[in-house]
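Two quick folds needed for the group meeting slides. Do the first one here.
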Amino acid sequence: MTDLFLRFKAHYGFEVTFCNPYAGHEKGNVENKVGYFRRNVFVPLPVAGDTCRNEELLGGCEADWQREHYKKNVPIQLLFEDDKKALLYLLRHPFTACRYARVKTEGYGKFSIDGKYFYSSSPE
C-alpha cells in the first residue's frame, strides 16, 4: 500500500481486503453485475444529453432493487438497507489527497520527488 493510501485508510478508519493476484474468479461477481446492467438496463444504448433517458435509467435501477437476490431469496433493497446500517459516518473534514512539498528545480525546471520520478514545472 502506498503512503497516500495508508493515510486515506487511517483517515476514514476502514479495513482493506485484497483479492489474490491472478485469481480472476474472485472478482467475477462484480464483473457479472456490470454485464447484467449492460444487457438489461442499457438497451437501447443511451444517447448523451438525453435527460429523459436518465430518468428511465434511474427508474430501471430502482425497479431492479425489488428483484430477489439469486442466493439469499430476499429483495436486493433489503440487503442494501442492512449494508447501510454497517456503514461508518463520514468525517466533517474531508481527506486531502495531495502532498505539498517545497523542492528545488534544476536549470530546465525539472524536479524529483522521493528520488523516483522527475516532473517538469515552469522555469520561473
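Then this one, please, same format:
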Amino acid sequence: MEFLREYEVMLHQFDVRKNVEQLKTLLHPDLIEIGYSGKTFDFDMTVRELPLEKKPDHRVWSQDFEYIELATNLAQLIYREARMDIHGNLSRHAKRSSIWVRDNGQWKMRFHQGTPTAAFEKAQT
C-alpha cells in the first residue's frame, strides 16, 4: 500500500494543492477533514480554498507511516508530520490520520484529521 503514502505526500505538495483537477482525483466528494486548528472542512471548501493558499516558506515533513487495512476497499494511514524550514528544523508537529476508500478503482481520501502533538525528532531517510 505504498501508493497510499505517495498519494498522501502528493497532497502536501504546493503544486498539487493548487490544482483543482488533481485535488478532485485524490479527494472523495464526501471528504471531511478536521484540521490542526480543530476547524472542519468538507470537499467543496477544500477544493475551493486550497488553490488560494500562498506559497509557504516551509515544506511538509512526514514520517513513521502506519498502514491499517480496515476492509477490502478501505484503509487508514497514521503518521507524524511537521513543517520543515530551509535549515531542516521542524515545527508545528502533528499526528495525522487519513482514511482512504477505493471508489470505482481509484483510491480517494475520505477523512483526514490533524492533531497537534509534542515535538519529535526527524527520522533519517
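Slide caption for protein two: The mean pLDDT is 96.
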